[in-house]
Design brief:
By secondary structure, the chain is of the alpha+beta class. The protein has helices at residues 3-17, 24-34, 44-54, 62-65, 77-91, 109-121, 142-151, 156-204, 213-224, 230-237, 241-255, 268-276; strands at residues 92-97, 100-107, 127-131, 134-139. The chain has two domains: 3-154, Endonuclease I-creI; 176-270, no CATH class. 60% of the residues lie in helices and 9% in strands. The model is unreliable at 275-288 (pLDDT under 50).
């Protein structure tokens, strides 16, 4: 995970650990989620949170809550959020790779299924597996992880993470679009160079002049605007795009074969039909 994302994830954990629930029941629920887990030295915010909760008056049940099973089924939604926040702080981890989230809880094997069932009931289904003798509950979808983090109290740090994810996705989409456009322009340039060479070859041996008017018109415009796409050629000539494409294919096919060597080039029937059309009657001349 890049250093900037790692720092932001650390800021997210610090933000969650700094939340001070106003309800005694929420403080007890969070303490239950923290449990009696030893705090790592690289998580000072979590250490301060545990000290703060454990210094609460015993009458509020905070000290006893760390060793008591949390009553999920009868707890209010805000208490469940506090409990999960404590569980995430001591048992959860979040990583961001190339704008993709991966969140997991590493808990005792017998707790993994229970935790996954609770999350699924809250509309946040998660995957469960066993890894090196421990239960692992995981999410990989950014939307689900974002919903969970907002539920347990994440704010500005989560917004910054999501902003970075959107920026990465936008840059990725833009790069794909530019690459596709570049490849398309390369194809147009390659085809145009081939067609211009074919037009020059037919003009040199006099065969271009023998082609129907439509083919000669396409050839003339292609020679003047080699960078134009088929759509642009068709628009300029007021022709169907397919007709322009067939005219260019005919030109290339004729250029690849000597005079008389290609009995019926592409679109031949179409051009023959044009040739069979009767010429308009001269003005004022009676038609029998």
């Amino acid at each position: 995970m890049p250093g900037a994302d790692r720092d932001l994830v650390a800021a997210l954990r610090t933000e969650l650990a700094s939340i001070e629930p106003s309800r005694p029941c929420d403080r007890a629920a969070e303490a239950a989620g923290l449990g009696m887990t030893a705090v790592r030295g690289d998580r000072p915010a979590l250490g301060r949170l545990m000290v703060r909760l454990l210094r609460e008056d015993d009458a509020q049940g905070i000290r006893g809550a760390t060793g008591r099973t949390f009553d999920w089924d009868h707890a209010a939604d805000h208490c469940r959020a506090a409990y999960l926040r404590g569980r995430f702080l001591v048992r959860g981890s979040l990583s961001v790779t190339a704008g993709r989230y991966h969140l997991e809880f590493v808990v005792p094997v017998d707790e993994a299924g229970v935790l996954a069932a609770r999350l699924a009931a809250a509309g946040l289904p998660a995957g469960v597996r066993v890894r090196r003798g421990r239960g692992v509950v995981t999410w990989k979808g950014g939307d689900t992880i974002g919903t969970f983090l907002r539920w347990i109290g994440a704010g500005p740090s989560l917004l910054e993470l999501e902003s970075r994810q959107v920026s990465r996705a936008f840059r990725g989409d833009l790069n794909r679009l530019l690459n596709a456009e570049s490849a398309n322009l390369d194809r147009i340039a390659t085809a145009a160079a081939r067609q211009v060479a074919a037009i020059a070859a037919l003009e040199a041996d006099g065969r271009l002049a023998d082609q129907p008017d439509a083919v000669r018109a396409v050839a003339a415009l292609r020679r003047r605007t080699p960078e134009a796409s088929l759509f642009e050629l068709a628009t300029e000539l007021a022709m169907p795009r397919g007709r322009v494409q067939r005219a260019l294919a005919r030109i290339e096919a004729l250029a690849l074969h000597p005079a008389g060597g290609l009995p019926d080039p592409p679109g031949g029937a179409e051009w023959h039909a044009d040739a069979r059309r009767p010429a308009p009657s001269p003005a004022g001349r009676a038609v029998a």
